[in-house]
Specification:
Length: 270
Amino acid sequence: MANPRIPDHSVSGTGDTTVFLLHGAFGAKEYWLRQIQSLTAAGYRVVAWDAPGYGVSPLPANFTVELAARAAEQLVRAEGTATNILLGHSMGGMIAQRCYSYCSDVIHGLVLSATSAAFGNKGGDWQQEFVRARVAPLDNGMTLPQLAPKMVRAMTANGAGGDNLQRVIDVIGLMREETFRAAIVAISQYEGRDVLPMITVPTLVMSGGHDANAAPPKVMEKMASKIAGSEYVCMEDVGHFGWAEDAEGFNAILLEFLDRKFATQAAKIA
């Protein structure tokens, strides 16, 4: 069987330590602007992808987290350097976990942002309601550009705003509806609790204190407890999109972890 195509991606910066940015179900590589700026300024090389079905990447038939993780594996093997860290947000965090199980030989660290290891039993009532609630506005005639502002504001802390969140809203508005629907189903069916005990690399788990539904802090803290040696941080004043709601705070936590665990080439030279 031929290898799947390498997903579309951007490469920023240079060096032997690469951070792969894996966006969530409502996203694309463009919404990582502030993280790319911060990481490259600190001496890291950054690869930000469009998952299968996002950006100009075609949507595969029967899209699943596992299928996306195989595509991520292809990307890491093609673009990886001496040290590779996966930073996955929400669905991207699920993809990062599963990708690690496929290619732990080339992944040296994980950062899991506002994500989960599983959504319970496939086809359960909770999963069905999760999908229904998120696609109902589209079924009722709303477009993604119309839905995006309301959806993002419902997932962020009260009063959150600014250019970074507007960028998230704009990116969601450009998504294809079929990709949005496929991603919602995929994350509702994901089961990855088997991966957590396998993880032996430095891992940072980050939640938002106001993330009440998508990735509640208690759920993420429990997930972190299943990963040996992981570090858990809750950003108390943000919701689901912590890296956009408080980019400066998120980046500071991220860089402190990376610099402590993976000295960059720039830091060695300095």
